[in-house]
Amino acid sequence: MYPADFDYVRATSAQEAVDLLAQNADSVLLAGGHSLIPMLKLRLTHPARLIDIGRVDEIRGVCEKDSTLRVGSLTTHNEIASSEIVQSQCRFLAEAAGKIGDPQVRNKGTIGGNIAHADPASDLPAVLVAVGATVHLLGPDGNRSIAAGDFFTGLLTTAKAPGEIITEIEIPACCEEGFGCAYLKVEHPASGYAVCGAAARVKMDGGTCAAASLAFNGVTPVVFNAWSDGSPLAGGPADDAAIDAAIDELAIDEPMGDIHASGEYRVALARAYGKRALKAARDRS
Amino acid sequence: MGSVIGTSVKRREDPDLITGKGKFTDDLALPGMLHASIVRSPHAHARIRSVDTSRAAAAAGVVAVYTGQDIADSEAGGVVPVGWLLPNLKTPAHPILAVDTVRYVGDGIAVVVAEGRYQARDAAELVAVDYEPLDAAVDAKGATAEGQPQVHEEAPGNVAFDWDLGDKTAVDAAFEGAAHVASIDLRNSRIVPFAIEPRAALASYDPEKGLTLRMTSQNPHVHRLLMSLASIDLPEHKIRVIAPEVGGGFGSKIHHYPDEAIASWCAMRIGRPVKWTATRSETNMTDAHGRDHVTHAEMALDGDGKILGFRVETYAAMGAYLSTFAPCVPTYLHGTLMSGQYDMPAIHIRVIGTFTNTAPVDAVRGAGRPEATFLIERLMDLAALETGLDPTEVRRRNFVPADAFPYQTQVALAYDSGDYETALDKALDKAGYAELRAEQQKRRDAGDSKLLGIGVCAYIEACGIAPSAVVGALGAQAGLYESAKVRVHPTGTVTVFSGSSAHGQGHLTTFAQIVSDRLGVPLENVDVVEGDTGEIPFGMGTYGSRSAAVGGSAIAKSLDKIIAKGAKIAAHLLEASESDLEFADNAWSVKGSPDKSVAWGDVCLQAYLAHNIPEGIEPGLEETTFYDPANFTYPFGTHIGVVEVDSETGEVEILRYIAVDDCGEQINPMIVEGQVHGGIAYGVGQALWEEAVYDDHGQLLTSTLLDYALPKAHQLPSFELDHTITPCPHNPLGVKGIGEAGTIASPATITNAVIDALAPYGVRHLDMPLEPEKLWRAMHSGEDA
């Protein structure tokens, strides 16, 4: 690859990364590099300096604390996909992480880098929104937290300020709370990104649905949260007919399109896979 | 002997390759080496008003910046020529850097040469070109319409050639009496060849010794010849072309492109070595693409489903310039295959080659034959629908029978040998065809949302190209023989110098197997040298599944000469008559007296000592053959695909893929299987996902792997392979070739399967790639989506 010229510096702590960001506004963070490097290679971005946080171990790893999963921002997709804690407590996050790219990508790419890049066709955003995750940031003014649903603000844009670094993603241990969850994906034939990725979470209480959430990757320019105001399934039977009806009433406006899949088709996929994901999540509850 | 041919010897080239020790062109460095970066047109069609190189020339590390005018002003020929001529072919010049007009996105304008690779790339962005954008002609057929932009003034209506073959009158008569007519309009999609290793060149020049050009080549001698004839100012004997390890070609490294000539010109001008390596996007933009046909065809059948006549009209895009063998591909590698496996009494095909403002189109992955097979095998399925026969039955009724060979088609070719029905039956048996059809019916009756589709493709190809006099009569500006020099060393070990030029095929293994088999020497005592014009007498190279049939046969012929000369020395040593000797188990012995023998090694040593050899025999043991085949070879087979289509989303899953191929004798069955695997995957890629897409302005929308959808291992099933063996009757090895079989058969196999799955929706044809949305629209077009 032949990117434009840039400086390189390695940070040894999250605080040092924040300090380095403050020194030079034309800096970007390099974690796993699987979003940034392709942009550099195609010369779509020309940062003056890369701040490599790849060895900041304090923000790497998965642990469970007070019924939530704490996932360090530098944790790789493969570490998430193969984590027993994630598999047992937030199954669809493990499923989504395991469907990103190929083994090389999953061994290098990180959750923090992934959500900071905010590619709408990536696999993690819908899961984080559907599960109600919280993104923790460190900046010049200290720590702050943002709900995942508020974090993704647009195509390749987030609520993270330029001088901030993502330190941790806090995720409810939803399986422990009685939720079933599922992530289903239609893979883009070239890039492997999601043409449609459906993340569903359903909690059944006997024959009645106690709660349900649903979000999509790949369909709209920012992750599509189907029921931000509460699920129409809640309080009902959540049988196949109810799920089909709920999805059929869903309005999905301004979908994205490319030469492989138009917006109209992506909406059709979202309906098909929304139903399938909800049914799979229900059956796992 | 005969124990080594036909065994799955492990590939001797693999240990180096899989441990990263393979040296590819870009791995090489020379003292004082510079790096070239080529400034390319972002427009599909534009006049160049001016080129300002001053900022680039002043940039850090830049040694020189040259434009097309600099090359035009030099003594160099400065063009890349076309190597296959047709009657009335328009041959506009193709300068290695554009001077006044650019004709496709990626056309070269200028070259920056710098100390560092990054510096060259950075400075290339500083070359300021003032363009006057022009409208672009993009569509293979649409380019001929009135009012379309003209790609070349010399080619009115953008027509490069208008060619036909066959008997139009006989075909018209056949249609008058037809009980059924099957017809189709199709577009055979444009694809990128996509070798994993991008093209690269490393040129170094010494005023005394000449030019040494290391490059990604499938045929170094052809590159040397064309370079000398048209591109740079050096005679042929002062150019040495070397192909180091080459990481795949698929046709793309046959052709003579501007870039390698530019690197050579720069090295000569500057007096320092110059390396150029394409980026992935450059390769995607500038490697000669494949296919891009717009075709209308009709097939006439009688009441029993027997073919009466076949007529075809194809518009074949040539792209912006005629690539090296471009005119041959849609004509003599496509039109001559129109009989398929079938006994067709009347055929006529017309092919109109058109200039478009796109990358040039040339031989890629099967070259013409996949297009022919796709057309014929789609029409056979439509003929089945018209006649009400099962797709296998309509094929069976029309096969050239096994006792009819050699078979003269109505489109010039004479098939050497074949047994098509046996291959079909073997494939049907392996697939469990009747059970599959029963399962399909069951699902249809039950309204199952998972639609089952079964596709059959019975293919033929013409390989081992080919007799030189024949291809010469058809327009080739080259012979298509192959050379092999076999050098036996005094200790009895062997080096083969072959004009074939492997880039993944495994010649180091298979050619050594031929030597070991014929001479009885162990494999480890045989080396194979290829890909260097300084070491090899001459070579036409590796493409068109020709290396075993032509290159291998040349080796076999040289080995026969070695054995014949050795027999004379052995007879002298044994004081026996040459006619009483037999050569077996690596020794000559007197027939009936096995104790009276002389070993291979003793004869080899004596050949070089020359202390005691027969009068009139020269010392040494080295023989060269230029083998010119008597005919093409005609591999064939039947492939069957089983797919499942999700009726709700249009997604396709390949459940099974069965391939029965007949490539004649097999030198190494493992390598044969590997070739079939790769070929099937390639063809499935075109059928389901791959397409080089240009928009109406000639912008390439698929210039990276984020958009261009190559097949991946996880998208494919485990292939079920089998074979029949019908030896080639006219070469010494009985081999036919296997490099392209998979890629010729699989596009039609998978397409037929998918269309079969959609039969309940009344779908008769869809163009490749069969992406889910296309299927979804075909199934739901009547509904409110």
Describe this structure in words.
Chain A is built from eleven helices and 14 strands. With 285 residues, chain A is an alpha+beta fold. Chain A has three domains: 45 residues, Uridine Diphospho-n-acetylenolpyruvylglucosamine Reductase, domain 2; 112 residues, Uridine Diphospho-n-acetylenolpyruvylglucosamine Reductase, domain 3, CATH 3.30.465; 106 residues, CO dehydrogenase flavoprotein, C-terminal domain (Enolase-like, domain 1), CATH 3.30.390. Chain B is α+β, with helices and mostly antiparallel strands and 785 residues long. Chain B has three domains: 208 residues, Aldehyde Oxidoreductase, domain 3, CATH 3.90.1170; 244 residues, Aldehyde Oxidoreductase, domain 4, CATH 3.30.365.10; 147 residues, Aldehyde oxidase/xanthine dehydrogenase, molybdopterin binding domain (Aldehyde Oxidoreductase, domain 4). Chain B contains 19 helices and 28 strands. In chain B, the strands form seven sheets. Chain B has a seven-stranded mixed β-sheet with strand order 3-5-1-12-9-10-11. Chain B has a five-stranded mixed β-sheet with strand order 7-15-14-13-8. Chain B has a four-stranded mixed β-sheet with strand order 18-26-27-28, sandwiched between helices. In chain B, α9 packs across α10, α9 runs parallel beside α18 and α14 packs parallel to α15. Chain B is globular, with a radius of gyration of 27 Å. Chains A and B meet through α11 of A and α4 and α19 of B.
